Amino acid sequence: MTKHVLRLYADQLEPGAISDPLAQVNRAIYVSEGSILCRGCGVAGSLSSNSAWQGCLGVTLTSGRKGVKLLRWELSRSEPALLAGEGITSVLALAAEPHIEAGIKYLMRCDRVDFPPGGIAFTHTHQGSGIRCLQQGRIRIETQGRSFWVEPGGAWFETGSDPVFAQTRPDGPSYFVRVMILPRSIRGRSSIRYVKPEDADKPKMQTYQIFTDEPIEL
Fold first, then answer.
1. CA 38 – CA 124 distance, rounded (Å)
2. The domain at 106-216 falls in which architecture?
3. What is the pLDDT of residues 74-86, one digit of tens each?
4. Tell me: the pLDDT tens digits for 124-161?
5. Do domains 5-96 and 106-216 have the same CATH topology?
6. CA angle, corner 80, sides to 76 and 82, nearest 5?
7. Which CATH superfamily is domain 5-96 in?
8. Sequence spans of domains, the chain
9. Which residues contact 15 (CB under 8 A, 6 or more apart)?
């Protein structure tokens, strides 16, 4: 059986551009700049900068008068689908297979994680896999025996089960946006687990803004 793949696309639409319809898949859209109108199945909703939408509708996207830059995550067994239409550029930024177990009901969470200058996320795991995309600053990730820096626009995948340590640059704030596939049982609650007991009670530098946290059908 074909496995589910989580894909992150970076899409940019010129002012007034209208996309070709997107297929019905589990999807989250985050607007990093500008505004957009989503239409599908008789439903319409607008998104502005630093907001997100989640659903499985087949949708058409129309950019606002200043255009739009957005991040689009899709979870499906189908082939990659770039956003098409006049005045549109679309790039597949990253694709990975999230850990999904039979018999477990899942949700899709889209949120934003902010760090102050030099912020640290102590060594931790999550209760599900996901793809992150840095929007501001610079962040160093240590996981699976590797250490690498991520620049704005850079994306990376975390399995959830592999411990991760993260630290941001000291000369300014940083933030990333992510989508994780998590068990429904933790809806509305943090998915993080600290590996070292002594880190659990330390003051945490990162802050969170949850945009969507909705059940999905697989």
1. 36
2. Sandwich (2.60)
3. 999 999 999 999 9
4. 999 999 999 999 999 999 999 999 999 999 999 999 99
5. yes
6. 120
7. Jelly Rolls (2.60.120.10)
8. 5-96, 106-216
9. 63, 64, 65, 66, 67, 87
